[in-house]
Design brief:
single chain, two-stranded antiparallel ribbon, flat
């Protein structure tokens, strides 16, 4: 059991350390096609959009352009899929 605070950050480092140790790493292919799900979008301090993505395969680098939408051509609802 872990105790902590998201506001102050107390205990967060210990929690992350144990999650890395106890949960298996994903088996995604860094060389495969870019695939992932956007689970959060927010505005940065300069007004830019920041997207948080759970990557399943592929690699995205700074200034890469990534197609957005489902493979059937629809944008979908809720979280976006790459």
């Amino acid at each position: 059991m872990f105790f902590g605070s998201a506001i102050t950050g107390v205990g967060v480092a210990a929690l992350i350390s144990e999650v890395r140790e106890l949960l298996p790493a994903s088996s995604g292919d860094a060389e495969g096609p870019v695939s992932g799900t956007v689970f959060k979008v927010e505005r940065g301090p300069g007004g830019e959009k920041i997207a948080y993505v759970r990557m399943f395969s592929g690699t995205v680098r700074v200034r890469d352009r990534v197609p957005f939408g489902r493979s059937d051509g629809h944008a979908g609802s809720g979280g976006g899929a790459w």
